[in-house]
């Protein structure tokens, strides 16, 4: 069965993204569209700001002036979203709203720390790994560092008779 709901990008007044999200959530509830309009996100990422020597973590909007909506597109849902105060329109090609591609939404969600797929790792520092993808394919290396948030691993591989550190994605390696 094909998924009827897709992610769409909605243009809003800049700086009003959270207000538009709240307005749209109220409209969805009042019109009974919860089944068709599933989720609304204001894409943000955590940034560390330094001010007067103090570090502060703030949420920074990734796409100011835009929200993304997971919904089933039809005339009724289009009307509800389009006529929400603060919405200026859908990102589209001409008149038809364009859904985001699967890899685009995965990239946005991973940037927000909301990855849909979790990659489990079964190795630790000191283990031998085989590189299964990329320019270092077939190389064997020793794990030096593991960075779970970035889903990266630093591996020491022997190249031209020298040990060289290489940073790889979890998906590029497997235990030997």
> What value does the average pLDDT take?
87
Per CATH, the class of the largest domain reads Alpha Beta
- Regions with pLDDT < 50 over 5+ consecutive residues? none
Going by CATH, the homologous superfamily of the largest domain would be NusG, N-terminal domain
Q: How many H/I helices?
A: 3
Percentage beta strand: 35-45%
Number of individual domains: 2
Order of helices and strands: EHEEEEHEEEHEEEEE
Distance between the termini: 38 Å
CATH architecture classification of the largest domain: 2-Layer Sandwich
What spatial order of strands do you see in the largest sheet? 12-11-10-9-13
The shape, in one word, is elongated
Rg, alpha carbons: 22 Å
User: Strand tally, please?
Assistant: 13
Helicity, in percent? Answer: 10-25%
Describe this structure in words.
- The chain is an alpha+beta fold and 176 residues long.
- It has 2 domains: 5-111, Alpha-Beta Plaits; 128-175, SH3 type barrels (Roll), CATH 2.30.30.30.
- It has 3 helices and 13 strands; from the N terminus they run E-H-E-E-E-E-H-E-E-E-H-E-E-E-E-E.
- It has a 5-stranded antiparallel sheet with strand order 12-11-10-9-13, with no helix packed on it. It has a 4-stranded antiparallel sheet with strand order 2-5-1-6, covered by helices on one side.
- The longest helix has 15 residues, at 17-31.
């Amino acid at each position: 069965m094909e998924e009827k709901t897709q992610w769409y990008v909605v243009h809003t007044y800049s700086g009003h993204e959270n207000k538009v999200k709240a307005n749209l959530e109220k409209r969805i509830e009042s019109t009974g569209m919860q089944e068709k309009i599933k989720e609304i996100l204001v894409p943000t990422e955590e940034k560390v700001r330094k001010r007067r020597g103090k570090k502060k973590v703030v949420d920074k909007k990734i796409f100011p002036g835009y929200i993304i909506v997971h919904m089933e597109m039809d005339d009724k849902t289009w009307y509800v979203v389009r006529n929400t105060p603060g919405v200026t329109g859908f990102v589209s090609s001409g008149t038809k709203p364009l859904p985001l591609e699967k890899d685009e939404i995965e990239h946005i969600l991973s940037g927000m720390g909301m990855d849909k797929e979790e990659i489990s790792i079964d190795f630790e520092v000191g283990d031998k790994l085989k590189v299964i993808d990329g320019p270092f394919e077939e190389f064997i290396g020793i794990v030096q560092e593991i960075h779970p948030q970035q889903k990266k691993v630093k591996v020491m591989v022997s190249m031209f008779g020298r040990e060289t550190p290489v940073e790889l994605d979890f998906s590029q390696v497997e235990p030997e």
